[in-house]
Each structure stands twice: as structure tokens, then as C-alpha cells.
Design a protein that fits this description.
Radius of gyration: 25 Å
Number of strands: 7
Structural class: alpha/beta
Shape: globular
Helix content: 55-70%
Distance between the termini: 51 Å
Strand order of the largest sheet: 4-3-5-7-6
Number of domains: 2
Strand content: 5-15%
Number of helices: 25
Largest sheet: 5 strands, mixed
Amino acid sequence: MADGQQVAERMPGARQAGPASIPDLALAPVLAVAALLALLLVAFSGRYGYHRDELYFLACGRHLAWGYPDQPALVPLIARLMSLAAPGSLVVLRLPSALAGAALVILTALLTRELGGERTAQVLAAAAIALSSVVDGSGHLLSTTTFDLPLWALLCWLVARILRTGQQRLWLVAGLVAGLALNNDDLVAFLIFAIVAGLAVAGPRAHLASPWFYAGGLIAALAWAPYLAWQAAHGWPELAVSSSIAAGASGTSAPRWLILPEQLGLASPYLAPVWIAGLVRLLRDPALRWCAAFGVGYLVLAVVFIVTGGKPYYLAGMFPVLFAAGAQPTINWMRRGRPRLRRVLVICAVALSLTAIPITLPVLPVGLVRSTPIVKLNYDAGETIGWPAFVREIAAVYRSLPRAQRAHAVVLASNYGEAGAVDRFGPGFGLPPAYSGHMAFWYWGPPPASAGTVVAVGFSAAQLTGVCRQPRLAGRLNNRLGVSDQEQGAPVWVCQRAARPWSIWPRLRDFG
């Protein structure tokens, strides 16, 4: 049992709003769930191939900076470290993701305990988050979402503990966590705004007057400052990226009206009653009045992301809190009325949630993917297939050039996936480094003025106007697996550079 009351009494000005003690932690079963998830993610981490974003992160890791047009520095830094530890290893590259997934499971159980959930409720919440599609899908890849989820959960757990115990000095720790999260992804700024709005609406408002609260905010701001300085120095490119996402340019974008319905698929639809009950409980249960700010915060986030055109998974960072709040009511419901039947229903909901694993993880042999709806249901699965084959097609076009032309030929890619793939696999096929106007690649500069022949990948003929003369279609990308992903069938052109072609480099900038 925790002695939050005693701690609060030792700290002048601290106020305790929640219960003085909380249930014991179900340490062994929660660790077992976390370990099972991590083992599952590691077991499948080497299948299929790199995601386009991972290829981009590896490229960014070779050009370390405080920021990039579409993200802060944390994930590229992790990609750099993992690639130095084991060059070319997908398993090692994705190992931090598996550990992040395990940490998320443990943090969800801690949140459940903080909200009064007994041991059985902690295990249920841990299992529910481990079986969420967004957790398994992001945990399989190195991405900003991979670390957003546990960092949001850690921040929410710290806030819950502050609200329950009145330990004001924990705002300093929360500030450190928020600062780290802000260097992973800007989305946590919305969480911070939502929590502050929730405190202002539902209380306890006394925390908004605490000097520790503002000290924590200052720590977070100082940690975020280098990235903000980078953005300011480069004209705030992330605003253009956000505008493009709101317009639906991203492969994982969705219409605004689908943001809320898609929450049912991001977690297990069979366990949706658990997190929905958690939201209702946070908003209505007098026993959780002390942390109603989380319920209000979820509503604030939903409105903000719908209005701004965010992606559906942006709301997924609140699932740990919602499952934590809903687990105990689910256990209580299971024990009432016809407990045996209700226990079976809950067990079946957990078991049926396992059926999503072949969609979120590369369980099926890659040769069977084309005959399934997996890519339609999980866009990211398609983006992990075929990159070596695509680069082989580009290399075939490059090698078809006369030897004299190859000496001054360059590869120009339309997006960072193509460029990252050429940089990763191209040396094995004798290709030179790729250039692109997409995202951070644009900042790394145009091809040299000495470039003669251009092998252009993924562009339309019209887009090459001013870059090169008389483009000739020399091939199309083909993953040889029949999987219809974003690159399948993309054209590969050969053309001679126009006079002063790279003077139009600003026009080739693409933050979409």
C-alpha cells in the first residue's frame, strides 16, 4: 500500500484529492504480459522488411540535427545508435520498439492501480493494451508512435499520482518526461494542453497555482527549445507538414468524421466496452472526481484532432488511461448477476482480440499477402514489402546506361521512402546515393552541378519539366509479389538534365 497521505503531509501546500492508499501491484502477471508482448514483437521483427519511415529515420540518423521538417530528433538518434550497434539488422533496429511496448503494458497496469484497480483489473488492462492493434502495429516498427504511447502513459501516470497524493514536486519529473516526449513528437503538446484544460474545467484547480507545476512546465519548454529553434530557423516547416496531413496527403490520414469510429479498430473492438466504460467513469464517477481532468482531456483532444484534421491514431495515446479506468468496472460487472457467463464473455473478448495479430504483425508468409485484405486493413504492412526489389529495378535502369553516362548519373527520388531505400540497398547494386526534395532530404541539397543523366523515380513526366529534357520511361517498380503498395508500378525515367536544373530545387521541395 502507498503512503501518499504521509508524503502529502510532509510537503507544505500539497493537497491530496484521491485515496490515501491503493491496491498492491500485480507485478508477476503484469510482467508476464509485458514479456509476452516483447517476445512476440521481437519474434516477428525481422520479417518482411523495412518500413518507408524506418528507411527515412536511418537517413536522418546519418544527418543528425536538432530537428527535421516533420519531427524532432529522438527517433533518428535511436535509428543511428541501433544501426551503429548492428548495421543492417532489422531485429536490432526494432528492439527499442519491443521494449517500449513492454513498458507501455507495465505503465497501463500502474495507471490502473493508481485509479484504484485491484490486481485482476491491472492484469485485464495490461492485456487489453497489449492486444490493441495500434500497440502491436507500432511496436513492430521503429516510429514516433512507438515511443509516443509509453511516454504519454508515463506522463499520465505521473499526473495521476500528483492528483491523488498531492506530491507537487513530481511536477518536475513530469516536466522532464514531457521534455523527452516533445523531442520525440509534437503530439504530446496537445496532451499537455488537454490536461491543463481538464484541470481548469474539472479541477482540482489548485495545481494550476502551484509553483512546482510551472517549474515542470519550464523544464519541458527548455528541453523542447532546441527543436523549436531549429523549426524557427527553417521557417516552421512542420506547419506545412501538418497542413498536408489535414488535407489527407498521408497514407494513414482519414476523413475527420472517421476519427472517432476508427478508435474501435485501433484498440481491440472486442474490448472497446472496457475503455468506453473507463471514459464514462472518468466523467461521472464521484470516486474519481479527483482525476476527472483525464476524461475532460480526452474530449478536448477529440475535438482538437477532429477540427485540425489529425490522424485517428493521435487519440490512441489516451487508451492506457481509459483502459485503466474501465478495467475495475469490468471486473465488478463480471462478478455480478451470472458471474460464470460474464467471466466467459470477458475471456472470449480477450481471446478474440488475438485474431487481429495476423493483420498487425507479419505473421503470414509474404507471398500470401496479395491474396488477403491485410494491406487494405493495415496500410503500414504494405510499406514494409518490396524495397530491395524496387531498388533492384532502379539499379537495372542505371546499369542500362552507357558507362560514360553512369559516371555522371544521379538518382532523383520523389519521396523519402524511395530515397531511403536507395541509400540503404543501393550500394549493393552499385547505385550512387539518392537525392530527393521530400521532407529532410530537401535540406540535404540537390545533386551536384556536374550531374548529367538523371534516373528519376516516382515522378510524372510533367513534374520533371525544368529538371531534365525528354524523359524516357525506362521501367516501373515491381515488388514481384503482387502486393499493391504505395510504390508498386511507380515509373522510372531516364533523361538528360536541363540547363541549370537545380536552380529549381526550391520548387521540388515537398513537405506533403
